[in-house]
Structure formats: structure tokens, C-alpha cells
Design a protein that fits this description.
Elements lengths: L12 E2 L1 H11 L16 H14 L5 H15 L8 H16 L1 H7 E2 L1
Antiparallel strand pairs: 1-2
Length: 111
């Protein structure tokens, strides 16, 4: 993922319940999955990924934004809900990639 792609998302609201269900089903097969870490430990990080997509998608490339997001993650997500940034960065990238894909974005948005 070299650059954030400006995607005309359908007008609506992100269906977080549907998105978390998608990730609950697929996270054990994801590179950020750690054996023994329950899905619930990832929820705040998935939400952080989605929350940071819209305000940042038209700005710099993802590679330029991720280091800055590390600080926002540490400041904005409670310590008890945070996972290591290495895995969190993969989750943020995965949520952004999902929203950059037109078909996934249509699924993610409640109209």
C-alpha cells in the first residue's frame, strides 16, 4: 500500500458491528494474530484504524502517516486496550486497505 487512495465512500455510516464480525472471523488467519490473544484485545485497535482512516485518507502516504499514528495510538487508546504497535500498525493498514477497496467499503457502510 503505497498511497492512500481517495475513495468515494457511499453516503452512510460505518457499520462497526459488521466490520468487527468480519475481523473476528478472519483475525486468526491474519499476520497480526498472536496465539492466546483473544479477539476482544484487538477491538480498540480495529476501531482506532477505522477512526483514523477518514481524517487521513487524503493526506500523505500511509508510510508517512503510520509513524505519527503510533503516538496518537499510545495517547488515545487506554493502556489496557493497546497491543504492541508492530501488530497495531498491521491492523491499521488492514482496516485502511479494506476501506480503500470499493467492494469492501460498500459492505462496511450502512446506507
Amino acid at each position: 500500500m503505497n498511497n492512500c487512495v481517495v475513495l468515494p465512500l457511499p453516503v452512510g455510516t460505518l457499520d462497526m458491528v459488521r466490520e468487527l464480525l468480519h475481523w473476528r472471523r478472519s483475525y486468526p488467519n491474519s499476520p497480526f494474530f498472536k496465539s492466546g490473544l483473544e479477539f476482544e484485545r484487538y477491538i480498540a485497535t480495529f476501531k482506532f484504524g477505522y477512526d483514523t482512516f477518514l481524517p487521513n485518507r487524503e493526506k500523505n502516504s500511509t508510510e508517512e502517516l503510520l509513524p505519527r499514528l503510533c503516538h496518537r495510538y499510545k495517547d488515545g487508546v487506554a493502556a489496557c486496550d493497546r497491543i504492541d504497535w508492530v501488530e497495531a500498525e498491521m491492523i491499521v493498514s488492514a482496516t485502511w486497505a479494506r476501506l480503500e477497496d470499493a467492494d469492501s467499503a460498500r459492505t462496511a457502510v450502512k446506507l
